[in-house]
Amino acid sequence: MFSFFKKKPKDTPAPTPEMAQEAAAPEVAAPSPAPQKSSWLNLFKKETAPAPEIEPAPTEVPVPPPAPALAPLPAPAPAPVPAPEPVPAPAAVEEPEGEIIPPEPPPPEKKQSWMQRLKAGLAKTSTNLTTLFVGAKIDDDLYEELESALLVSDAGVEATQFLLEALKKKVKTEKLTDPQQVKAALRTLLIEILTPLQKSLVLGREQPLVMMIAGVNGAGKTTTIGKLAKHLQMHHQSVLLAAGDTFRAAAREQLAIWGARNNVTVIAQESGDPAAVAFDAVQSAKARNVDVVMVDTAGRLPTQLHLMEELKKVKRVIGKGMPNAPHEVLLVIDGNTGQNALAQVKAFDDALQLTGLVITKLDGTAKGGVLAAIAKTRPVPVYFIGVGETIEDLQPFNAEEFVDALLT
């Protein structure tokens, strides 16, 4: 009865079959308007804002299965190489039957003997003497030429006159007629003159044996000391060196090098007195039971008398360190200086009373006759002679070997 109070619904049209079909169909987006054809005017128009880019949704792409492995391709065939032209084979060599022995290697080069080195060193002096007797007549001309050759070799006036007079007498007495016989007679006379100079250095007579070494600068004094140290070591002697040459630059360093080379102790001071260095060396040798002490001294010219007085002082101080020392006072002279070497022997002998000589640098000199001058003027024994720079080139003096090297 109260139905009249109900609100009437609006009149809706009855659904038609087309509406039902439209309702059931899914929503379809409205198609975008078809692009308009561009005209020449539109091509020159500036575009407004670009359309925003829309990232596509990630989609899962199926991965295809791996392809089966392929068999390796065959290598291409090499290009054909033309065959080389045939080379004629060498002629067959008939080999001897049995074991094949390889060729022997060449023998190693032998070192020159001492006599060979001595001859090579005295070759210039020898040439001046030996050429005189080749096809010569025994007359006054031969004696005059021999006199000139002896003087040129620095045999000295006294030794030359002695040799000529003795040779003439020998030729007359023995009736020598052949030049080679005269040459042999000269050899005999030279050996007689030089034999008194031949003396050996006696070791072991004192403990220690103190040797004072003197010589002018440039004579090879420091080098000779190094060679003598090696020579003494070969005779089972322990050696100690004293660097008493405090005047010459690098003298201590040079002696230290020789000491290191021979494994020998060197006593030195930075700027000490030479006599003090010698005294310390003697005391050190006594404490260590060393066999030989060699004291290097500063090089002097014999005309510098005040410096020669300092050498005398060194000798006196050595005597205070050990009685009767030094036991040997050696002078090193350069064989190339000739008559100047003879003057040095006289001056140093007067100041120090020399006991022996060492003559160096005889290799290549034409003044080997200086030993004859020393023998006749001041016969101080010659302990060693040197003909080169190596240690083997310093050997004891032998009169017969020396004369043979001169005349052969």
Give the helices and strands, then pairings.
Blueprint: H1 17-24, H2 40-43, H3 114-121, H4 123-130, H5 140-152, H6 157-174, H7 179-194, E1 209-214, H8 221-234, E2 239-244, H9 251-262, E3 265-267, H10 274-288, E4 292-297, H11 305-321, E5 328-334, H12 339-352, E6 356-360, H13 370-377, E7 382-386, E8 394-396, H14 399-407
Helix pairs in contact: 3-14, 5-6, 6-7, 6-13, 7-14, 8-9, 10-11, 12-13
Describe what this molecule looks like in 3D:
The chain is of the alpha/beta class. An eight-stranded mixed sheet has the order 3-2-4-1-5-6-7-8, sandwiched between helices. Helix 12 links the parallel strand 5 and strand 6. 31% of the residues are buried. The N terminus is likely disordered.
Question: Tags for this entry?
Answer:
alpha/beta; 408 residues; Four Helix Bundle (Hemerythrin (Met), subunit A); eight-stranded mixed beta sheet; Rossmann fold; 8 strands
Q: What spatial order of strands do you see in the largest sheet?
A: 3-2-4-1-5-6-7-8
Question: Which regions are unreliable across 5 or more consecutive residues at pLDDT < 50?
Answer: 1-14, 20-61, 67-73, 95-104, 106-110
| CATH domain class name of the domain at 204-398 | Alpha Beta
CATH superfamily of the domain at 204-398: P-loop containing nucleotide triphosphate hydrolases
CATH fold field value of the domain at 204-398: Rossmann fold
What level of helicity do the residues show?
Answer: 40-55%
User: Oligomeric status of the shown chains?
Assistant: single chain
Mean pLDDT: 77
Strand fraction: 5-15%
The H-and-E topology, N to C, reads as HHHHHHHEHEHEHEHEHEHEEH
What is the gyration radius calculated from CA atoms? 55 Å
User: How does CATH name the architecture of the domain at 204-398?
Assistant: 3-Layer(aba) Sandwich
User: How many individual helices?
Assistant: 14
Q: Count the E strands.
A: 8
Distance between the termini: 178 Å
Shape: elongated
Structural class, from helix and strand content?
alpha/beta
| Main β-sheet description | 8 strands, mixed
